[in-house]
Description:
By secondary structure, this protein is an all-alpha fold. It has helices spanning about 1-35, 50-75, 80-110. The chain folds into two domains: about 1-45, no CATH class; about 45-110, no CATH class.
Amino acid sequence: MAETILVTLIIFSSIFGVIYTFLTTRNKERLALIENGADAKLFNSGKRYSFGQLILSISLLAIGVGVGVLVGALFQQNGMEEGVAFTSCVFIFGGIGLMSSFFVNRKLVEHED
C-alpha cells in the first residue's frame, strides 16, 4: 500500500518538476531576448493548429484505439494471448489513426492556402 502511494507521488512530482522547469526556463529565455531588444514576433514563429485540427486528431486516434480493441478481441478469441493481442492492436491502430490524422490535416492546410 505504501509503495503505490510513494510511486504515485514520485510520478506526479516528476511530471510537475519537468513542466515547471520547462516553463521557467522558457520565461527566462524570453525575458533575456526582450532585454536584448529582440522582436516580439520571434515568439509567434511556430505554426499553430486550429481547434478543428486538434479535434480531428483526437477523434481519429480514438477511432483507431477502438478498432484496435475490437481487432484485439477477435485475435484473442482465435487463440492469441490476451495481453499481446490487445496491446499490439491498440498501438498499431492508434498509430494508423494518428498517421491518417497527419495526412488529413496536411491536406486541409494545403487546401486552405
